[in-house]
Design brief:
about 425 residues; about 20% strand
Amino acid sequence: MRPGEERRMSEQDREREEFLRVARTARDAAAGLAPLPRAAKDAALHAIADALVAEAARIIKANEADVARARENGTPEYMIDRLSLSAERIAAVAEAVREVAALPDPVGETVRGNVLPNGLELRQIRVPLGVVGIIYEGRPNVTVDAAALCLKSGNVAMLRGSSSAYESNSVLVAVMQEALRGTDVPGDAVQLVPGTSRESVKHLMRARGLVDVLIPRGGASLINSVVEESTVPVIETGVGNCSVYVDAAADLDVALDILVNSKTQRPSVCNAAETFLVHADVADAFVPRALAALKEKGVTVHGDERIRSLGDGVVEATEDDWYAEYLSLDIAARVVGSLDDAVAHIRRYGSGHTEAIVTTSQSAARRFTSLVDSAAVMVNASTRFTDGGEFGFGAEIGISTQKLHARGPMGLPELTSTKYVVTGDGHLRGA
């Protein structure tokens, strides 16, 4: 063994042992949290909200250390803004926790139920998932948001934020744990994964049997890494290569408004449009208007040959552009020969998040919605509506782009599983 390797190995062993201790503590807390009634969970959430406001100065002091370190490391200013907390932002986070407390509790809800011919009463009810691991980047407010959603749905939160926010996250979790210890909810129901190394993330991803599910929140590289390396079941969230298709039967004024809103209302989020497709029959009339409107908003268009022929300042689109989740003032554009061609493009390049069609034809709308295989399909509406709040679900943990268990905006019901409760009267099964 080379010099220093023994010391490094012992450090890794200590980090793993500390992780296992925290994970087992979380597992024990899950058993105490799951059966608690709504009133107990809501009281705990209000206690957390009050504690966040009361401890704002302590939280800000820790956050200032993270921000200073980020600046020393040359972190871009927009990322520093996401990292930064202030008294006003903490108050907003606390209010968001109170809003979660006001949402209906999904735990115990009967999904379906009936009396079988043999007299057995069968009920399928919602139950917590158990221990939910959440891996996320940047914003320390996610630490509180995720914890609140997990607690409300009866789950223990195992939180692994980015190392850039470690000081902030450590204090936020400590404040929440302290607040919980004055309530009926176990104080260990919110846990921070110890350590800032890559190994600490791997410990969480491989904690099958201690952690029930992982939810990664962040960019494509983070999500792909978790999906590929985790032995714990993963719910994929977030990556959004969303498209707006302008049909031959579109109202072009409506189409222009929807396209501009989908791209520019908030370009750095997963439900912003990254591609627009235009039917060849309306390309001459629509594309010049679209290019002018997008240029006015500062958007760079990456277009195919037909798009480039209809306006100035269009960058030639590459194969990578069709797959791109820009999260910036960029958009890819292509002219297609038919609705089916638009669907084929979406199926090949899309991420399964949100697609929109603009059309006055009911048959075109029906065909598009039946053929497009994405979590959300909009008809004459902006892609920006794919959001838990906009859908009326309240807060969300993320937007799932997979097909198993949860798909689309994940509210509180999506943070539950189900179990069957079967009630008999001395029933015995025969042959």
